[in-house]
Amino acid sequence: MAVEEVARREAELMENPGEVPVRVRVRREGTLCLPHPDGEDEEKAVFGVMTFGDHLLIEQACRHETEREDGRSQFEVDFNEVRRLTLKRSLLSWSLNVPVERQNGWLTPESYQRVGTVFSPLIEAFLDGFWEKSDVSKKEQEQIDRQAAVLFGKSSRGVADACEAVRLYCSMGSQWDKFGIKEDELKNMPYRKYVMLRMMVNHENESTRRQMSQKQAPVTKIAGRGGRTRPSRGQRIPM
């Protein structure tokens, strides 16, 4: 993700903490409002920030037990239900001429019915935009993997042009002893930041295990002339 795009997103959150604005270009065809990248108009929806607690609540509600072919049970998540509950939980307002009313942190049943009359591709476009800002993309995951490997390397001197996750990890780690986050604070943490920190901690733990394994590896000895043994000069490759 471009540095400018990250800066704009963070600036929006600073201006309106707790809100995630999503803008979609649209084209109008009769009474239909269609999402279109070259549309002449724009519609806007404002969502509440998806916290770790929100995501946990929604995911647990959408989990159901199924039976595998071997007869054993497993849990699956219905992602269509995840998106439906995300809309009910997170939509705060929008520019469409359809009232949005909330009660106790959710869209009211009457409001959700009205929202459901909106052309579904537009709602899907709003949700896509929201999740792009609320989760970690595959491209970002790959960047985190690369930079974490450098950061936690044996002779690391830091990471040049650090990504958002590395900056977040380093800035928080310098202030708290492994973040020192209480349960309530964790549940209120934006889900995107939670995923980034979880990935970075996993990489750090893996690096620590790898280094400990190398330190504890037994020295392999080989027999030389006269039956004397000496340490092998071969390089041990971690498995």
Reconstruct the topology from this structure.
Elements: H1 3-15, E1 19-29, E2 32-35, E3 41-48, H2 52-61, E4 63-67, E5 73-77, H3 79-90, E6 91-94, E7 102-103, E8 106-107, H4 109-115, H5 120-134, H6 138-151, H7 164-173, H8 183-188, H9 191-216, E9 221-223, E10 229-231
Helix pairs in contact: 2-3, 6-9, 7-9
Describe this structure in words.
The strands form four sheets. Strands 2-1-3-6 form a four-stranded antiparallel β-sheet. It has a two-stranded antiparallel ribbon with strand order 4-5. Strands 7-8 form a two-stranded antiparallel ribbon. The longest helix is centred in the last third of the chain and has 26 residues, at 191-216. Mean pLDDT is 82; it is low at 232-239. It has two domains: 3-134, no CATH class; 138-217, no CATH class. The chain has helices at residues 3-15, 52-61, 79-90, 109-115, 120-134, 138-151, 164-173, 183-188, 191-216; strands at residues 19-29, 32-35, 41-48, 63-67, 73-77, 91-94, 102-103, 106-107, 221-223, 229-231. Helix 2 crosses helix 3, helix 6 (138-151) runs parallel beside helix 9 and helix 7 (164-173) crosses helix 9 (191-216). The protein is built from nine helices and ten strands. It is of the alpha+beta class and 239 residues long. The protein is globular, with a radius of gyration of 25 Å.
Offer a few descriptive terms:
globular; 239 residues; two-stranded antiparallel sheet; alpha+beta; 20% strand; single chain
Explain briefly what this protein structure is.
The chain is α+β, with helices and mostly antiparallel strands and 239 residues long. The chain has two domains: 3-134, no CATH class; 138-217, no CATH class.
